[in-house]
Amino acid sequence: MHSTITGTTMPVLHITLEGGEKVVAEGGDIAWLTTGFQMDTSTAHAGGGGLLNGIKRVLGGGQLFLTEYTAPPTGGQLSIAAQLPGTIREITVDETDTYMVQNGAYTASTLGVDVSVGLQKRLGAGIFGGAGVVFQTLSGTGTAWVQLAGELTELDLAAGETLLVHPGHLAMFPAGMHLEFASVKGIRNKIFGDSLFLAEVHGPARIWLQSMTPAALAAAIQPYLPKPQSSRSD
């Protein structure tokens, strides 16, 4: 099995499989695939546990059901298109490399990768609309692909080094990293008056920061969306 990523602003992930190889993905994300794949949709994929594990994925912004794609004897390829302007990254997951990724970032994986909700934190309603911040955890052993928003910046924090990050821009980080949430006084939300909550990240660790958040993209395009037309009867 090997993968390639093409494109820039809206990349596409292409996964090529040998005969009998399997990959798990969220079914609605597949853009195109070659013929002959066997497909099995279930709550048990990406971690087992059936319905309970599926519910944990939903809490992390994923889907209840995942689809397992098995390549035909001659092999095959499937392609997944990015849902937002951004970046697709391939990561290796094992006992020493367990990752936390932004809500809904998980795209696909090999069979040994477990996907679940890793962190839920309710923050100020004025900043996050009352939903708080949610991260998915990717554990187990295998390869996973994640979609991250906007451009990506990788930073290596040294031991003792601390960085304050808006939680929406903290795209991915090691699960064992020391992370706290701090309320920064003096920075006020101009509408609701809440203090600004930031993620306080402590090294040593490598972190991945995304330049855009889905919430910011939605807010940017909202003024340009068609307004509902009210019907009036004479």
Element order, helices and strands? EEEEEHEEEEEEHEEEEEEEEH
Binned strand content: over 45%
Strand order of the largest sheet: 5-6-3-10-13-8
Question: In CATH, what is the homologous superfamily?
Answer: Mitochondrial biogenesis AIM24
How would you explain this protein's 3D organization?
The protein contains three helices and 19 strands. It is mostly beta strands. The chain has one domain: Mitochondrial biogenesis AIM24 (Double-stranded beta-helix, 4-Layer Sandwich), CATH 3.60.160.10. The strands form four sheets. Strands 5-6-3-10-13-8 form a six-stranded antiparallel β-sheet, with no helix packed on it. A six-stranded antiparallel β-sheet has the order 11-12-9-16-19-14. A four-stranded antiparallel β-sheet has the order 1-2-7-4, with no helix packed on it. A hairpin with a 6-residue loop joins strand 17 and strand 18. The longest helix is centred in the N-terminal third of the chain and has 10 residues. It is globular. It starts with a strand and ends in a 13-residue tail after the last helix. About 6% of the residues have low confidence.
Write out key terms for the chains shown.
mainly beta; 234 residues; 9% helix; single chain; 6-stranded antiparallel β-sheet; 19 strands; Double-stranded beta-helix
What is the topology?
Elements: E1 2-6, E2 12-17, E3 22-25, E4 30-33, E5 38-42, H1 50-59, E6 66-70, E7 76-81, E8 86-93, E9 99-102, E10 106-109, E11 113-121, H2 125-128, E12 133-140, E13 142-149, E14 152-157, E15 162-165, E16 170-174, E17 178-188, E18 195-202, E19 205-210, H3 214-221
Antiparallel strand pairs: 1-2, 2-7, 3-6, 3-10, 4-7, 5-6, 8-13, 9-12, 9-16, 10-13, 11-12, 14-19, 15-18, 16-19, 17-18
